[in-house]
Amino acid sequence: EAQVTQNPRYLITVTGKKLTVTCSQNMNHEYMSWYRQDPGLGLRQIYYSMNVEVTDKGDVPEGYKVSRKEKRNFPLILESPSPNQTSLYFCASSFQLAGATQYFGPGTRLTVL
Amino acid sequence: AQSVTQPDIHITVSEGASLELRCNYSYGATPYLFWYVQSPGQGLQLLLKYFSGDTLVQGIKGFEAEFKRSQSSFNLRKPSVHWSDAAEYFCAVGVKNFNKFYFGSGTKLNVKP
């Protein structure tokens, strides 16, 4: 089954404790992206990757890191989480962008205390 | 700066009634336009998209949207709403060779029996 998976689905952590949210897709997509969703703000793009070793900032990259060492995986790293990073996070992937449909993962709900 | 505006935060319609959800964007050129739906606790699913050509586009689940360049709008419509359409709807634009995406803040649709 074609899908985007994220782990963990739920995470409660404390300020400053490094964490990684994994994202994996089995559709051989070149493009992958991370978003955060906050009430009243919709989804905001954090980082995106056009292919292996090619990443770029979205609208709200501060406090986040990403890497794209393999085509299928695009982890989101919070080196020193803060409470304002409490949010619902979505990973998405698609084929090359022209005409592409993004497929979204199920989301990761992160709470930083 | 690019922006996407969905002026209606909540909309309630009766089952069987028609629906129109508004979306306006701000961008120097014609972007790629999308409508996504998010059911409670789920990720996002693409309803339809516009790239070029016919300004009236058909999507899944009986939805359609019309691109109006003069109004910078891309409103979503459905002639007869079903109870299962209750969800949150997001308008989005793709810019910068479609690597960057901007989402509106969403419109929550309630459907009355």
Mean of all residue-level pLDDT scores of chain B: 91
Largest sheet: number of strands, sense, barrel closure of chain A: 7 strands, mixed
First and last CA, distance of chain B: 41 Å
Beta-strand percentage range of chain A: over 45%
Low-confidence stretches of chain A: none
Distance between the termini of chain A: 36 Å
Q: Looking at the structure, what is the overall shape of chain A?
A: globular
Counted beta strands of chain B: 12
Number of helical elements of chain B: 0
Rg from alpha-carbon coordinates of chain A: 13 Å
Q: How much helicity do the residues of chain B have?
A: under 10%
Structural class of the secondary structure composition of chain B? mainly beta
Which residues of chain B sit in consecutive blocks of at least 5 with pLDDT less than 50? none
Shape of chain B: globular
Strand tally of chain A: 11
Structural overview:
The complex is a heterodimer of chains A (113) and B (113). With 113 residues, chain A is mainly β. Chain A is built from no helices and 11 strands. Chain A is globular. Chain B has 113 residues and is mainly β. In chain B, a hairpin with a 5-residue loop joins strand 5 (32-38) and strand 6. Chain B starts with a strand and ends with a strand. Chain A binds chain B through residues 4, 31, 33, 35, 40-45, 48, 50, 56, 58-59, 90, 92, 97-102, 104-107, and chain B through 4, 6, 9, 42-46, 49, 51, 90, 92, 94, 97-106.
Report a brief summary of the structure.
The complex is a heterodimer of chains A (113) and B (113). Chain A has 113 residues and is an all-beta fold.
